[in-house]
Amino acid sequence: MMPVRIRITVLFGSIVFVLLALVCSAVFYFYYTNREHDIRRRLTNRAITTARMLQQPEVFDPRTLQKIDSSTAMTMKKKVMEVYTGDGQLIYRSSDQPNDTLSFDPSIFEQVKKKSPVYFFSGVNDAIAWRPADSTVNMVMVSAAYDEDGLTKLGQLKIILWLCFGGGVVAAFAAGYIFSERLLRPVRQITDDIKDISARNLARRINTGKVRDEWFYLSDTLNKLLNRLQESFEIQRRFIANASHELSTPLTAISSQLEVSLQKNREAGQYRGTMESVYQDVQYLSKLTQTLLEFAQASEDPGGLEIEQIRIDEILMQLPAALNKLNLQYSMVLSFEGLPEKEERLIVAGNAELLFSAIKNLVSNACKYSSDHKAWVRLSVEEENIIITIRDKGKGIPKEDLPYIFQPFYRGANTWEESGFGLGLSLVSRIIKLHKGELSVASSEGEGSVFTITLPSHY
Questions:
Q1: Are residues 143 and 24 in the same domain?
Q2: Are 187 and 12 in contact (CB under 8 A)?
Q3: Domain of residue 243, CATH code
Q4: Do residue 312 and residue 253 come from a single domain?
């Protein structure tokens, strides 16, 4: 597996390689085409000038014209000028070197009749075949020369471009290697910080730095993750400690009572009293164990639950019978407000048993802590959400207890005289979260409480 630093270096160097190749190729191409354009323009001008002179035999004869051609100061070397009739007969020739002739395909004469001028190469020379636009002049001018100066500069440019290209690529890979080290330095620092963080040292956090860049965002995200992990570990520790305490108390009482009973023989009535006391402790343990099992089920991944379509009004209609089984003194008032015309909007996707358990828990708490043991339950639909409110006229929840009532085993200061484990509201909160809902509470001490469940409609 290639290290990240090497991959960044290769990627950076490859990008620069491609860019330099494109730039150098473009520079060479434009200079090359500009040289061709320049030499062809000069050859065309020379052909035009020669044609005009040949058309004035009274002023310029061929010998005079050859002298002028040979004495012309031009940077081009090996200049050759040949003039042919339309059928290919040579009528004039001038060259820098004696016996220096042009070699070209005779089809050039046919091409120049259709398209003038025609550019071609004669050996190393650039050449042009040009025919005057005047149809009365039956001549084809062939001008050629070796562009020594232009080709020399083109060769020098090629060397310079190759040197720049090679040096640029080497510099790019070197710079990429150094740049990747600086780029990955924050990652290495974050990794070193994370190595020092363990379950026993979750309070430590990653240094985010002062610059609010991507590394700051990554460090901040990891710190938030660590905050959630620390909170989860603390909740787990408190849960284990509280559960152990709640389980050990009745077990200790059972063990003590049985030990005392076995120290000496007693009457049947005394044994019966001991057995009744033990039975109550066993019932307490059974209820606590069942509650812990429900709490564990509510803490599971929702993907492992049996999800189905549930009519929420049908769940609420089961509450009165369930409350009577808990306590004959419990009662509730159920009302439906603003229900939609389409009954499908009352359907939620979830687990019927868990939802029923959560709502029943809230309603039974409302009855338990109300002096008249009565609860008011209202069902309504707002936009895409189903709203369930449970209201009571009980003693209410102290303001200082409100932030903690959904924590496992937490019990308010004014609830100790009532039986319970402190798991009910925590269980309800987890069940509602499993169903992608929200649970909120509003309470005033001495006036009662209102719990609101918001669940998304399945339709």
A1: yes
A2: no
A3: 1.10.287.130
A4: no
CATH number at residue 117: 3.30.450
**The residue type at 441:** V
| pLDDT digit string, tens, across residues 54-69 | 776 655 555 665 555 5
> Using an 8 Å Cβ cutoff, are 376 and 391 in contact?
yes
Find the helix or strand (DSSP H, E) in which 153 lies. Answer: helix 148-195
pLDDT at 389: 93
**Smallest Cα–Cα separation from 365: which of 239, 246, 449?**
449
Residues 6+ positions from 355 with CB-CB distance below 8 Å: 310, 312, 315, 348, 431, 435
Percent of the chain beyond pLDDT 70? 83
| Residue 320, domain member (yes or no) | yes
Cα separations in angstroms, 28 against 25, 146, 157, 160: 5, 20, 7, 10
| Cα separation, 179 vs 268, whole angstroms | 88
Q: Are 297 and 431 in contact (CB under 8 A)?
A: no
71 has pLDDT over 60: no
The residue from 276, 298, 320 where one domain ends is 298
Q: How far is CA 447 from CA 93, 333, 392, 450, in A?
A: 121, 18, 8, 10
* Contact yes or no for 109/88 (Cβ under 8 A): yes
Helix (H, G, I), strand (E, B) or coil at 266: coil
What's the predicted TM-score (pTM) here?
Answer: 0.49
Burial group, residue 147, by CB count within 10 angstroms (0-12, 13-18, 19+): buried
What are phi and psi for residue 454, nearest 5 degrees?
-115, 120
Q: Are 424 and 373 a contacting pair, CB within 8 Å?
A: no
Distance CA 421, CA 292 (A): 10
The Cα 35–Cα 47 span in angstroms is: 18
CB 374 within 8 A of CB 333: yes
